C-alpha cells in the first residue's frame, strides 16, 4: 500500500461519534435560543444523526445521555438500538447525568448526604443496565460535583466518597464494558471540582483497573494547558479512553471542534497517531453546543474538521521528523510538522469521500438534500429536545 | 475628628446597592436549583432587600432589571418606588436586558438586522422612561452582543452600530441621569464580545460625554487582569461610574463579593479611597448569583465583605505609605498596606453598627428574625422569580 | 487588475521590519545559550538582516535598540544608516531602553525619584536625536515600569509621572516623526505594570495627539484576550501604529510569529486588511527571541509566516462574507473565512517571489547560500551581541 | 493541652527551609539588579540564613543548589555542614541544576543526544553523593526540559528518557533518602514541558516507589488551578513531599510567599493541616526571588507569612466546620473557615516568639541588629552570588 493509500484507508476507517444532545437545543445560563426543526424525541435525534453519517460516512455511532434520551424501559432501549441500526447507525457511549435533579444541588456521588449518594449510584448502575440493552461498550461519567466556596465541604472526604462510588460501578461492569471518567476544571462548580484534571481521573482509573479509562474533553482545561501532552501521556500509560471534541476561546465554550484553534486539534491528532491511538480503543466523540448555528450542518462541519486534522496528522513525514528531532534541528523538525499542517487536505478528503460513494462536499450535499426544510415543516408541536431532563 | 472617627463616619455613610435578581433563583446552564421562599414578584424582592438594609444599615437602594422586574405600566414603577420608600429603601440603577428575546440570538444593538437593532434601542429608551418614573439616576447597559465564530459578523461594523445606539440613548438622558456602560470579556459570546474590556467602554464613554461612565464588574476580566489598576485609571479619568461586585475563581462565577479573593477586594477598595471614589459618584452595587447558598444571608455576607474591605482600606496609614513609597522602600511600603489588611476589622464594624442602632452581627440578627422561616411558609405557589423574563 | 493580481501586488509591497536584537543572543532568566556566528556589532546585525531581505524581498528595514546598538556618536548613526542603504536596507524604528541601568530598579519615567525620571527622559530625547540622524520615522517606547508588590508605589501618581514624560517626548518630535507606545500585561513587573493594556496606551496617546500611536505586541496580553478585536478597534480609532509580531503559548514567550497559533495571526491580518491597515501607516515589525533555534532562518521563517497569514487574509472573499454576515448565516460566514484560512498559499507566495526575481523557498535559498557557515567561521572572538547594554 | 496551647506548640515546632539562592542576586531576563551586601560564597549565604533563623526561630535548615553552592569536594560539603551547625542551622534539600550548561540547550535527561543525557544523570548522581556528605535527606529534581516548538522533539520519547533517568537516580538513593520531583507548567520551555503538572510527577513517582514524592511549587500552575486541591490529593495518596513556597500574580513571579494571595496560602495550609501534612514528612521550603526588595528581610517576611497562614489554618474550628459541612450549610461552613482567616494572628505569633525567647517582631529585630549595614560594609569586592553557575 502506498503512503497515500494508507492515509486514505485510515481516513475511511475513522469513526467519529456524535452526541444525541447536540441535535437538541442548548444555550448559556442567559438564554437557550430555540431552533426550528429540532428533534423532540430520541428517535428524531437518530434520524438527524443518520443524515450526518449519510453525508460524512464516518459518524456511525450516536452517544446517548440519560435521562435526556430516556425511553420507557430497557426493552425500549433495545428498540431504539434497532431503530438506529435500521438507519445505518449504532448506539454508542451511554452518558450518565447526576447533575440535574434538585437533590444534586451539593453534589451527587460526593454529596455529604449518603441518601443522595445512593440515589446517584443507583442512576449510574441503571446506566450499565441500559448499556446491556443497547450493546454499548462505554459508560461515560462526568460529575458536576464540587464546591463553590472554600470550606463548603471537605475536599478529601469527597474523594473518598467518589472512590467508593466508582468502585461500585466498576464492579458492575461486564467484561467487555468500560468506564470512561471525564475531568473538568470548573463549571458548574466554582471553587473546587472533584475531578478537575487528568491527574485526578488518572489516579482513580489506575486503582479501578484496566477497564477504567480517562476522557479528554478539549474544553475542560485551564488556560495554557498543553492538551496534546496529556494525550501523549495517557496513551503512553494506556489510559486514554475517549475524546470529547469541541473548541473554546475562553472557558468550556463548546464551539465546533477545530473552530477556535485548528492547529491545536491537529497537534492533538498528531499525538494520537504517534501514540497508536487511532484505533477503536479510543472513542472519538463530539461534545458540543450549537447555540446559535444550525445544528446538523454544524455537526457535519465538526466531523469534517476532525477529519481534516486527522488527515494532516497522517501526512506528517515521520522519517523526516524523527531525523530532524534526533539531530536537534529545531527549525527543521518544526517545519516537517508545519508542512503537514499547511497542506490543504480538502481535495484528499473529497477524494476519499468519492471513493466511499459519497458526495465530496458533505455540507453542500446536506443542504441539497432538503432535510433541513423537511424537519422544519414536519416537527411542529411537541417539546423540543434540550438539556432539560 | 479623630482618625478612627473619620473611618467610622465613612463606614456609616457607605451605600451598597443590592440587585433585585440576586433574591431570585439563578444557576448555571446545567441547572437552576430552586430555593424555598424565593420571591415571586418585584414587591417580594423589595421585602427581602428591606431585610438586608435593616440588618446592615448600608444597603438602602435596590437595582431593578427590566423586564425581570417589569410591572404593568410607568405608574406601576412609581408605585413600586413608593413601596420601596415605605420600607426604607429607594430604587436604584435600572438594568436593561436585550439578551433574552429570541430576536437577540445574534445580538441586540449590534445585530446585523436593523429591525432587531431598533427593537433593542426601543427597550433601552423604555428603560429611561422607567428611570423617570422611579427617580433612578443611572441606566446600566450590559450587552451580551458578540459573535461565537470568527467571521460570523464584522467586528468593526458592529462597533459602528453600537456607537449609534449609545448616542441615541445618551441623547435621551435627562440632565441628572447617567449611562453606565459595562464591559465583559466573554459569555455568552464565545469569540468576540462587542464591549469586552474597559478600554472599549472608556472609548465609547469618552465620545458620548460626561454623563457616560464605565462599570467595573469584578468578574468580567481575563485571568491575571489587575482590576485595581483599572479602577485607579478610571478614577483618574473621571470615568468610573459604578462597580458590580462579586467574586470568581475562574470565569464570571458570580460568587459572593470577597469570597474568592478578599485581598483583591481590599486592593480595589484601597484604590477607590485613594482616588476619592468613596462618594455617591461611584455606585457600589452587588451583582451576584447565589446558586446553592441561601440568598438573603449571602447578600448580607457580601455587604459585610465589602464593608470589611472598605474598613481596611480606610485604615491604611497614608502618611507612612507615602513616606515608604517616596523612599523606594519596597518592603516597608508593602508592609504598611498589609498591616491594614491583616487587621481584624470585625470589632470596628460591630461598633459602627451598634452606634447606628443595629445588632453587631447582621447574619445572626437575620437568622434570629425568623424571616427565613416566614417566607418559606408564606411564599407558596406562584412562580418563583429568576432570570427568565 | 484581477483579484489574484491584486493579492500578489499587495504581497509584493508588504514590508516587515526585523529587529536588530533578534540576530543576537537571547534567553530566559535561567540561561542565555550562545550560538556560533552571532553578530558582535550593529554592522554585523545589518549584514544578517540584509540576508533576510535578500531572500524574502519584504524585510527592507531594521529596527534599532538603544543602547544595544549604540555607536559612537550621531555621525556614527548616520554612517550606520548609509551602511544599511549600501546593503539594500533602511534603518527603521528606534527602540528606547530604560530598563537595564541599575538606576531603573524601581522604574524609569515613573520612578519615585525625580532624578531617575530625568535620566530616563534624557535617554528618550536622545533617541529622538538618533532618529534625526538615522532618518527613522518612529520612536517605540516600551516601559518596564511597574511594581512587584501591592503598596510598593502609588499607581495613580505613576500615571501622572508617565504622562509628564510622554508629553515631553511628544513635544520634541519632528512633524514627520511618531511616538509608538507599547503596552504589556506583566514582566518584568509582577504586580502592576504602568502601561499594562491597550486601553492605557490608547488613553495616553489620545491626549498626546495624532503623532502618538499604540503598538500591539502579540505576546503582551492576558490569556484569552481577543487580539484581533483590539486591532480592529485601534484601526477604527486611527490609533494603531505598529505590530510587534511574535507568538506565545503561555506568557511573553517571544516565539516565531505564527508558530504557536497560526489561525490567530490570520485573524489579526484579516482585521488589518479589513480595517485598511495594510499601509505604511502601520509598521509591521517582528519582536522575537530565538533562544534555541538558529536565528537568521528563524527570522526568515517568521517573515514567511506573516506573509502566509497576509495572503490568506487577502484571499477572503469579501462579498461572500458580507452576504453571509448580513443574512446572519453563522456557518456560512465562518466557512468563508475558513476557506481562505484552509487554502495552501505557499504556491502563491512562491510565485510572488519568483516574479520578484527571488528563489521560491527563502529558507532553502538561505541554506544554500553558505552564509551560516561563513559567519560561524568568520565571527570568532569579540563579544557576541545580546540583550546586555 | 488547651486548644490554644496546641496551636502554639504546632507553631513552635514548624520548620520552614530557606533557599541559599534567595540570599543572592536574581532578576528577570531583562535585568538582574545587584544589591549591596549580597553574599559571595555559600558560607556567607549561611551567615545570612542564620540571621533569619535567629529572628524567626523556625527556619533551621537551608537548601543548597548545585553548582551555585559548589565547594571544592565532598569534604568541603561536610565542612559546610559543620559551619551551618555552628550557626544553629542544618543543610537541607539538595537541588540539582541541569539547565545552565551550554549542553542543555535542548534538554538534560530528556535531550535527544544520549551523551547529554549521561552528563545530566552524572550530575544528579553527584548530588546524591553530596547528600551523603551533608546528611541531607532530600534530593529535589526540577527539570527545565521541554520544547519550544511543536514537533521539535517527540513528547513521548522524552518521557521514556525521563523515566530512565529517574529510575537510575532512585536506585542510587540511600534508604533514608528521598527524591522530590517538581513540576512546572512552563518556563523556560515554551511549548511542552516534560514535567508540566502534578499528574505527570505523580505518575512517575508512583512507578519509582515510596521514596519518590511530588513537590508543589505554588507558582508553577496554569491560571485558575486550585492548588489546595492538589495538596489534598497528594496527601491522600501519600505522595506530597515538599512545598516550594512563593507567590505570583501572573506566571512564575517568585514573589514573597503570601504576598500575592494570602487567602490562597491559608487555604493551602488548611489542607495541609487537614491532611496531616504538618509533619517532617512534608518539607516546607521557600523558593523565591527578591529582585527588587532587600533579601534578608524579605525572607523573614515570607517565613512570617507562612507562619500566619499556618496559625490561621490551625485555628479553624474543625468541629463546627464538620457539622456545617455535614448539614450542607454552605454559608455556615464557609463562615467557619473565614472566621479563622479573618482573625489577626499577629499577636498570637508575637506571643509564641516571646515564649521561644525571641523578639516579637522579627523584621524590627533584624533591622535593629545592624546586620544589613554590616554586610554592606564588609562584603566588598568579589563576585556576588546569583543564579550563574
TrEMBL record, chains A, B, C, D:
GO molecular function terms attached to this record: L-rhamnose isomerase activity
Keyword vocabulary terms for this entry: Isomerase, Manganese, Metal-binding
Enzyme class, broadest EC rank: isomerase
InterPro entries: L-rhamnose_isomerase, Rhamnose_iso-rel, Xyl_isomerase-like_sf, Xyl_isomerase-like_TIM-brl
Keyword match Metal-binding: yes
Enzyme Commission identifier(s): 5.3.1.14
Domain Xylose isomerase-like TIM barrel as annotated: residue spans: 75-252
Keyword Metal-binding: yes
UniProt-listed NCBIfam families: RhaI_grampos (TIGR02635)
Protein name in UniProt: L-rhamnose isomerase
Taxonomic source organism: Streptomyces gossypii
Amino acid at each position: 500500500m502506498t503512503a497515500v493509500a494508507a492515509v486514505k484507508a485510515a481516513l475511511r476507517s475513522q469513526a467519529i461519534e456524535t452526541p444525541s444532545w447536540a441535535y437538541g437545543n442548548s444555550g448559556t445560563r442567559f438564554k437557550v435560543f430555540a431552533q426550528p426543526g429540532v428533534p423532540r424525541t430520541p428517535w428524531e435525534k437518530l434520524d438527524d444523526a443518520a443524515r450526518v453519517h449519510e453525508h460524512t460516512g464516518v459518524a456511525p455511532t450516536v452517544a446517548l445521555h440519560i435521562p435526556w434520551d430516556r425511553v420507557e424501559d430497557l426493552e425500549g432501549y433495545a428498540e431504539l438500538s434497532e431503530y438506529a441500526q435500521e438507519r445505518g447507525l449504532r448506539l454508542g457511549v451511554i452518558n450518565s447525568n447526576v447533575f440535574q435533579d434538585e437533590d444534586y444541588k451539593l453534589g451527587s456521588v460526593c454529596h455529604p448526604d449518603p441518601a443522595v449518594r445512593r440515589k446517584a449510584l443507583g442512576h449510574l448502575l441503571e446506566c450499565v443496565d441500559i448499556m446491556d440493552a443497547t450493546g454499548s461498550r462505554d459508560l461515560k461519567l462526568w460529575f458536576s460535583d464540587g464546591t463553590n466556596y472554600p470550606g463548603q465541604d471537605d475536599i478529601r472526604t469527597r474523594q473518598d466518597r467518589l472512590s467508593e462510588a466508582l468502585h461500585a460501578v466498576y464492579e458492575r461492569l461486564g467484561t467487555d464494558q468500560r468506564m470512561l471518567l471525564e475531568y473538568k476544571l470548573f463549571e458548574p462548580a466554582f471553587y473546587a471540582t472533584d475531578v478537575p484534571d487528568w491527574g485526578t481521573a488518572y489516579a482513580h482509573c489506575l486503582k479501578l483497573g484496566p477497564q477504567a479509562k480517562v476522557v479528554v474533553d478539549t474544553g475542560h482545561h485551564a488556560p495554557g494547558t498543553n492538551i496534546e501532552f496529556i494525550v501523549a501521556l495517557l496513551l503512553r500509560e494506556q489510559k486514554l479512553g475517549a475524546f470529547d471534541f469541541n473548541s473554546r476561546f475562553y472557558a468550556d465554550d463548546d464551539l465546533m471542534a477545530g473552530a477556535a484553534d485548528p492547529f491545536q486539534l491537529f497537534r492533538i491528532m498528531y499525538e494520537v497517531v504517534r501514540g497508536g491511538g487511532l484505533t477503536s480503543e479510543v472513542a472519538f466523540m463530539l461534545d458540543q453546543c450549537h447555540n446559535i448555528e444550525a445544528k446538523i450542518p454544524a455537526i457535519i462541519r465538526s466531523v469534517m474538521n476532525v477529519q481534516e486534522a486527522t488527515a494532516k496528522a497522517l501526512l506528517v513525514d515521520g522519517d523526516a521528523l524523527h531525523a530532524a528531532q534526533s539531530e536537534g534541528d529545531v527549525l527543521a523538525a518544526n517545519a516537517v510538522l508545519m508542512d503537514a499542517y499547511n497542506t490543504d487536505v480538502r481535495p484528499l478528503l473529497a477524494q476519499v469521500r468519492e471513493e466511499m460513494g459519497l458526495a465530496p462536499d458533505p455540507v453542500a450535499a446536506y443542504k441539497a438534500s432538503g432535510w433541513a426544510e423537511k424537519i422544519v415543516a414536519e416537527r411542529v408541536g411537541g417539546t423540543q429536545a434540550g438539556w432539560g431532563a
